Write the structure tokens for this entry.
Amino acid sequence: WKGAIEKYDTTFMGFYWIGAGGVERAKGNYNAAIGHFAGAAEVFLDRRAPYGFRSHLMLARAYQDNGQLGKAVAEYENLLSNYGEGRLLWTIESVKLHYYLGTAYEESGWNDKAIEQYETFLDIWKNADPGLVAMEDAKERLARLKTAP
């Protein structure tokens, strides 16, 4: 796919980088995933636009997977502060931003901020179908943080 894009229409390269980043992330190759998602994020710079939102979200997830929590938190916070077509089109991920940011805060030791994000996430999805993995995990994390000394 990359060869065809380079040969016929390089304006689609950002889509290649999103796909390649997803493959590398699934393989656990987080540095490679970060490189691909960063390339997509440069093409789709506007976080309010559909693929800008998606590429920056995936970049944040790869940063978090790779233990680069400061960069992950910065991307998540930036995405949450931007409202636009991207968040409207990626609605589920837009809500999950609160969950993702909560986990990054928790991993960073910022438990009060994590609690706030988990509560926001759970409040938004309070009427969701039971058994959703992120919801169950957020409930467990929230309960644990609230009872921690």
The longest helix spans residues 91-108. DSSP finds nine helices and no strands in the chain. The radius of gyration is 16 Å.
